[in-house]
Design goal:
heterodimer; A: 175 residues; 3-stranded antiparallel sheet; B: 3-stranded antiparallel sheet
Chain lengths: 175, 65
């Protein structure tokens, strides 16, 4: 699905696609490779900051496919054309409104494995994946998606969800 | 037999931690790799001294959201 906020970046060899609507602020990209993925900079993706191989490695770790990549020879004509349209103001993982992630796939029923995984991101949020619901004290369901991220720093403006504030305030797991 | 997985319940306790109930896996640095049915309480205020778990600090600091 195309979104006017979507962006793509190339180094002539591969193209990285950025879909803000899918981002849950897992922060994997910039913790792994700040030379390329730096939300404090515009554009926030610098394709010359690291070798292609390394960029691919980190993009593959994005838990939500907010970041994806393709070899340039595999681009569709529309994607090739879009290489030249990256001039508008862009969102970064920190300026996104939270809660934009859409459910993508049906979760496959399985009784062997845990229903959901909660990942404590170092100095960051709790990333939850699987079959779960987020409820408030009255038991009212707040959110039911295959993935979300819950604030751990106490300062998000989109409570109870992460909005990237932990990085601005330098939240740390140190006790 | 019902093959649907039981949903894990994440309860956002107002001004307090996140209570997690159900069959879930908790993954993180320095955490034992465990899967369980036990309830856990995860810190949301940022102030706990036993992160990622709640230690009641939110009551002292008056965590407001």
């Amino acid at each position: 699905m195309s979104d006017s906020r979507d962006r793509q970046y190339t180094n002539g060899e591969i193209t990285v696609f950025w879909k803000p609507a899918k981002c849950i602020h897992a922060t994997t990209c910039f913790r792994e490779l700040i030379e390329v993925f730096n939300p404090g900079r515009r554009p926030w993706v610098n394709m010359n900051g690291a070798p292609t191989r390394r960029i691919i490695e980190v993009v593959n770790k994005c838990p939500t496919q907010a970041l994806e990549w393709k070899r340039n020879e595999d681009l569709s004509p529309e994607e090739q054309e879009a290489q030249f349209l990256n001039t508008k103001e862009e969102l970064t993982p920190e300026t996104l409104p939270q809660g934009a992630a859409e459910p993508e796939n049906e979760v496959v029923p399985d009784v062997q494995t845990p229903s959901a995984t909660l990942k404590i991101m170092p100095d960051g949020p709790i990333v939850v994946e699987g079959v779960f619901s987020v409820v408030d004290g009255d038991g009212t369901t707040l959110r039911q998606t295959p993935m979300t991220s819950i604030c751990r720093c106490g300062k998000s403006h989109s409570m109870p969800y992460c909005d990237g504030t932990h990085r601005k305030i330098g939240f740390t797991d140190e006790k | 037999m019902n093959m649907e997985k039981e949903k894990v319940r994440l309860e956002v306790i107002k001004g307090g931690p996140l209570r997690v109930q159900g069959n879930f896996r908790l993954v993180g640095k320095d955490l034992p790799d465990g899967t369980g049915e036990t309830d856990i309480y995860l810190c949301r205020c940022g102030g706990s001294s036993r992160k990622p778990f709640c230690d009641g600090t939110h009551k002292r600091t008056g965590f407001a959201e």
